[in-house]
Design brief:
Belongs to the cytochrome P450 family. With 494 residues, this protein is an alpha+beta fold. It is built from 19 helices and 9 strands. Bound molecules: protoporphyrin IX containing FE.
Amino acid sequence: SRSNKRLPLPPGPTRWLLKKNELPWKQPWRLSTEWSKKFGPLTYLHVYGRDMLLVNDVQTATEMLEQKSLLYSRRPTWSMATLTGLHHNVAFMDYTERQQKSRALLQHILGPESQPQWRSLLEKETAKLIKSLLIRPTDCRHQIRWYLSSFISRFTYGTSITDTRLKVGEELGAQIHVALCPGRWAVDTFPFLIHFPAWLPGMGFKRRAREAREKFRHFAETPYNLAHKSIQSNSGERCMVTDVLREISTGKSRFDEPALISATNSIHIATVDTVRLCLLPLCAFLTALQTSAILLNFLLLMTIHQDVQAKAYAEILEMVGPCRLPTLDDQASLPYVNAVMKEVHRYNPAASMVTRSPVEDDTVHGYRVPRNSAVMFNLWAMAHDANVYTESDVFRPERYIPSPSNPIPDKDPRDFTFGFGKRICPGLNLANAQVYMVISQILSVFEIKPSVDLSGREEIPTPSYTCGIISTPEPFKCRLVARKGGLAQQLMLG
Ligand code: HEM
């Protein structure tokens, strides 16, 4: 509104940042948290030729993203990402009818009402992971990545993953990383360059974008077409593509094929893995990466906190017994395992920041939030807010368990680590089920131990995380040692 124009912008360290035209920090969420102590919950910056805002507390985020959800239903756009074709991805698309249709489809397919469709695949694939870890208890990172990619590939297209495809996926991840590096492409700061022909000097970005776009297309189309054909020949596995296409062909579905294509494309592209993403002030929702960040963080924190691990195992032993794996049906009877899961999410949220862009000027706490600015919601700061989580740097699952000394348990961090409002993660039910399955089953079969050095001394890792919008543990060492007893043997034979 016009009156809003007279309001001041929120305070922030503007000039200093402008000098270099890059974001000069390692873990932006930590710095942003520091700034919030100085400037309050809203910090304003001007970088890469655009307005940027940092929001650090759940209350302000909820006011903006839930009470004014339509205003903040859009992601900031970056020209290079658009040229690369990422704007067809549900996570990047504008909040249009098409996006909403694809989102609704994802929410339906990944939601609790569809659990019967994904549950048996989840059980089968997780059993395979546990068996593979028993055979080769090293290189958990690779095995977890393989497991997640394989699951999502079979889930969407009914095809298993191959080494080559995983590799191409990784290359694409690197391309996403390059396309989304803020400040790297002049076209992001000067969008008018998009209109210049590709043959002009300095326009190499257009060629690169075209190549990346072609690769993305090919990567997503090949398995989609295979799944499509398998319907005609009545062969192949049942999967998301075949289920939805069959429903569409009855003429009674509320979804259509374009919605299906962008939905599958979005979650599948999302399986690519690249660990070293730099700060992306827009969102790369690399879905398997988020889940793998949580699972690796679980292994890291269990390696360090043996007491927590012992307590979680004792609960499984008592409630499930030593002879079978925990299933989704046991989840409600394992409060401590659930508390471990919450604390893993809180200790280092997989998505450190969520970004949105207001479609109109907004007023927050008496300050002006300019239309089209990139607003970054700092989930890490929310998870480490000392007013909400006492001793927020301590890993302590007990904080979620009510007891005489803890009559009001801490808030479940997953209320915000999956985002807010109109763009909240549509995969959260599946992700929660998957994370629970993997961690409870690993706990029941293995002891997660630190590695030992040549003199036999245990090397306890220190938690350290990559700096990206998806923050995952830096490589660390741990050992998975099969627990004594029949379960491991039984699984190996099964
Ligand atoms: C532990 C695992 C996961 C975490 C922590 C996570 C977290 C998030 C967050 C924070 C967002 C942004 C929400 C917002 O802007 O408010 C998001 C978006 C999204 N997530 Fe997840 N996610 C996870 C797993 C998954 C899985 C397994 C899938 C699908 C198979 C998925 C699909 C998506 C999609 C498609 C979006 C974009 C939604 C939109 O822009 O409308 N996520 N996720």
